[in-house]
Design goal:
Radius of gyration: 20 Å
Number of helices: 2
Order of helices and strands: EEHEHE
Shape: rod-shaped
Length: 98
């Protein structure tokens, strides 16, 4: 964090194709997009040792278990399509040792 602000992003995607024998023979693609921003408050406002992190999550795609006939989810990233504030974290270092 040279300027006091750090940006980041990550992408996770899954593709499932149900072979003949499932409820429907078709593919399902789903993905998650995560955007991160961090603020070094020591550089931005003279509050030494404080860092603030914010993270947003976007979920897109379908539910692959619907086409397979399964009653249990088969992907850990599947979910209702939406954007949400995923995490807010404030870190404050109280002691600086050497």
């Amino acid at each position: 964090m040279h300027s006091g602000i750090e940006l980041g992003a990550s992408y996770i995607g899954d593709f499932f194709y149900i072979i003949p024998g499932g409820v429907q023979d078709e593919g399902t693609y789903l993905n998650n997009i995560i955007f991160d921003i961090g603020f070094d408050m020591g550089k931005l406002s003279r509050i030494d040792g404080m860092i603030i992190y914010l993270s947003g999550l976007g979920i897109y795609g379908g539910f692959p278990f619907e086409n397979s006939g399964a009653i249990q989810g088969i992907s850990n990233i599947a979910g209702v399509k939406h954007w949400t504030l995923y995490e807010v974290r404030i870190e404050q270092n109280l002691f600086k040792i050497m």
